Amino acid sequence: MPAKTVMNQEDIRRTLSRIAHEITERNKNTSALVLVGMQTRGVPLANRLAGLIQEFESVEVPVGALDFSLYRDDLNRGNFNPQVKSTDIPVNIDGKFVILVDDVLYTGRSTRAAMDALIDFGRPKSIQLAVIIDRGHRELPIRADYVGKNIPSAANEDIRVKLMEIDGRDEVVIAVVEDGS
Amino acid sequence: MTEATAPLETKSWHRRHILDVDDMSPEEFETIFRTADAMKDVLARPIRKVPALRGQMVVNMFYENSTRTRASFEIAAKNLSADVLNMTASASSVTKGESLTDTIRTLEALGANIIVMRHQLSGAPYLAARHSHAAIVNGGDGWHAHPTQALLDLYTIRERKGTFKGLRAVIVGDIRHSRVAHSNIWGMTRLGMQVTLCAPPTLLPYGLEKAGGMMPEVAVETDLDRAIQGADVVMTLRLQRERQQSGLLPSVGEYIRRYQVNETRLKKAATDALLMHPGPVNEDIELAASAAGGTASTIDRQVENGVAVRMAVLYLISGRQSEL
């Protein structure tokens, strides 16, 4: 089955704009905000959100990048990606309101791993989660604080967020993954 | 963008054991180096520990004495939250005649996931790997190979130079008996470096004339003053004093005069040359103390990088265990 576009460039722009407003509305003290993008696509999304918050509130929010590969719980379960990417948290996160940013929330295991990784850098006042897509199928008691779009999906569906910075275009596509592919 | 930071296309890792670097592809080297970069980030944090190997057991089985390799593997494994068991042959049933395969089976039955093995006999880790469900890492076997030392040496070169291609290395000393040199020759040539071996003829490996067979193509020069001219990397090797007793050297004094790397000779190398040594250094024998402590020396950096590289190796081979 061909991939179906469920969000286009304008949808993504509008969604990020809404999430940026929701973040500033919920966190009045914007000077204590830190945006941390989960590698890989969470990083450009965090940068875009920081840009929008600066546009709306004239506040420069620090942005970090977090790789959580070394914190995953599935190293020996056939889901091994040897590419450990960089982690760069540019500010002390003690007492800060940290917004973890990811493209898709699925089982929740990546979020758990990212929270474990983040806590090794300090003790934030709170950790909130922002995602473009929540596709369900949670295996852990984790929910996002900011959701771009809920897409109740089947397990054999693949949802991909494509971003200009990495993929050369902005869109969210859904495709059925055939068995064995 | 340097070659070292260019995008990496490798998506998977298929190696279960690390026995030598002689069959590694440039992509595999780069995967190890990129992973080591991430491990160096971990080592720079206030908490130098990640849970990647939690619940796994790494056994350091050392049939030969070692300080830095064993300590480095132990620290690397602990930084990845593995359980670590250190064993020496002298304190095991090996002294009662237990065979290598029996030892491996026993360690597996005790729960070893990864066995780091140093052995005085070349090829012993290969035998172990054939009989082992655990991953085997060669921590140095006889005169044959010392893959993680070569990897940390290469990683240090990459860190300082940003590339391998076109660099010229001179390896000086007892090359015939050096597992470090053998692994480095394979690694350096595979990554595009030119290698010159410099030693008295009695300390050069057999079969060098058959390039492309047992050894990669290298240059050989018995005069250090000529060999060192313009070199980008000067790698010195530890001289075992028993080589004189075994008749391979006329005298240590003569060796010092002809083959010691000192500051005067180092000036003939490239201005930004790296001076490397796998340690421990026989000060003022193969390497002048002043050169060892000079600005070109990467000796301390090699030790430091060893932990990150060994963390990378342990992490990468851990990911394959589900598919055994």
Beta-strand fraction estimate of chain B: 5-15%
State the end-to-end CA separation of chain B. 38 Å
Shape of chain B: globular
The first-to-last residue Cα distance of chain A is 13 Å
Q: List the total number of helices of chain A.
A: 4
Kindly estimate the percentage of residues of chain A that lie in beta strands according to DSSP: 25-35%
Using brief descriptors, characterize the structure shown.
heterodimer, A: 181 residues, alpha/beta, five-stranded parallel sheet, three-stranded antiparallel sheet, 4 helices, 8 strands, 27% helix, B: 324 residues, four-stranded parallel sheet, globular, disordered N terminus
Describe this structure in words.
The complex is a heterodimer of chains A (181) and B (324). Chain A is an alpha/beta fold and 181 residues long. Chain A has 4 helices and 8 strands; from the N terminus they run E-H-E-H-E-E-H-E-E-E-H-E. Chain A has helices at residues 9-26, 42-57, 109-119, 164-167; strands at 4-7, 33-38, 63-66, 97-105, 126-134, 146-150, 157-162, 171-176. In chain A, helix 1 (9-26) crosses helix 2 (42-57). By secondary structure, chain B is α/β, with parallel strands linked by helices. Chain B is 36% helix and 14% strand. Chain B has helices at residues 26-43, 68-79, 100-109, 124-130, 147-161, 179-190, 224-227, 242-245, 252-259, 263-266, 289-292, 299-318; strands spanning 57-62, 83-88, 114-119, 135-141, 168-172, 194-198, 219-221, 233-236, 274-276. The model of chain B is unreliable at 1-10 (pLDDT under 50). The chains are: A alpha/beta (181), B alpha/beta (324). The interface between A and B is medium-sized, with 21 and 31 residues.
